[in-house]
């Protein structure tokens, strides 16, 4: 087989005519079919599922897993996944709270009437850019994620609290840089942990929920700032926007402390106290059954190998352009301010967009997981955001249309987690590539974020920008091209040649159950589930290639 590490092994050398005892997975029938077997880890025989459990399984996969798998996944969900949700919540809360503070008195108190708002973003982004790759090297080779990530979270929480005492914008610039530098470990680290513990048909919806914890953070920050402005403004001699930084830090610290317990590191080296010895063995077998490689350490040699290969660049192109087409929703509150809305409404109205983002992200993640149609899902989201950017480019439209257009931009946040889960799938045999996909994508994203918003959305032009939304249309078009290019390259690589005695290509497809969507040159590739009652992704499967 051309790919020695491929997840499926060809078993075409056994025939009923040989007289050998054969299982269904070893049979080559008289129609000259080659059957490829994917050996799954041992599992319990599933019972007939109730209608209610099947219904819940439409939304969350553990409900339709066998009892052993269900118990294991529930443990990982309740500890690691819930922690990651809260961890990314505080990461995004502490990253974007400046925006709520800016429109709630900080601009006036610190006399920020130039481009200072965008420079606050720039200094944060510079910290992220400088810290990302070193943070991943430390996490992979020197310090366990269960120690490294919570320690960074604690440190940046104290810098956020210090922002409450800033007397000038230069102090804020320095503190924002420090927060960004420390936060550089979090997003790539969280994504790698998810990719290390969940299978191909489980990761999409979790990645969508994880990344859209930012939507929850945006909603919470808006409501919190509105409440602090009404209840604590000038209390204790502090303006309401200063209290926001203090409360954000108070919220962040206990979540960071929980991380020391909740993060299980990786299946290959876990010491989590909430996993039994049997759980650890099961988890390792489970990842091996997916063909998920364990990390060996992120060395300079490994970094060179990854960066001189096409996979990471094919991933970064759509990852980056999808992020860049979403700049516009960050300026919704400035439009509301220009329209004369109250401080409370300026902080709360955008939370409806964040809620929309969460719903769309979950629905998109579930659809992409169940169908494997990641290209189609992302393309629909790109088109939706592009419609919003086109309307905002026209600008001279009724107020209600502009409000609607701003809300459409929030839909785009659902695209990036699907691209990330896509990357975790095609890189599952290469732990170092998996680790660097999101880390490198973040470096490029924050590099552009460091200067492009200043150019495209200058504060002094708010809320009507000369070419801000027009540029978002271009980025949307590039994202569309990038998604189709990634899909083409990945599918091309998945073609695996048959053994010498078989003269047809084999297509190794997404390993979800009961799938039959690949047809090329007369070749029909089917993925079937051997047990009709088992719809989780770890049941024994076969691929039958008609040749």
Give the tags.
disordered C terminus, 2 domains, 5-stranded antiparallel β-sheet, alpha+beta, two-stranded antiparallel sheet, 62% helix, 21 helices, disordered N terminus, 547 residues, Growth Hormone, Chain: A
Structure description:
The protein is α+β, with helices and mostly antiparallel strands and 547 residues long. The protein folds into two domains: 9-39 and 494-546, no CATH class; 62-492, MFS general substrate transporter like domains (Growth Hormone, Chain: A, Up-down Bundle). Helices cover 62% and strands 6% of the residues. It has helices at residues 51-57, 67-109, 116-142, 145-162, 169-183, 186-197, 203-211, 213-231, 240-262, 277-289, 300-307, 310-324, 332-338, 343-348, 350-371, 374-394, 399-409, 415-426, 431-449, 452-456, 468-493; strands spanning 9-10, 33-38, 495-497, 505-507, 515-520, 523-529, 541-546. A five-stranded antiparallel sheet has the order 1-2-7-6-5, with no helix packed on it. α2 (67-109) packs parallel to α7 (203-211) and α12 (310-324) runs antiparallel to α18. The radius of gyration is 25 Å and the shape is globular. The two termini are 17 Å apart.
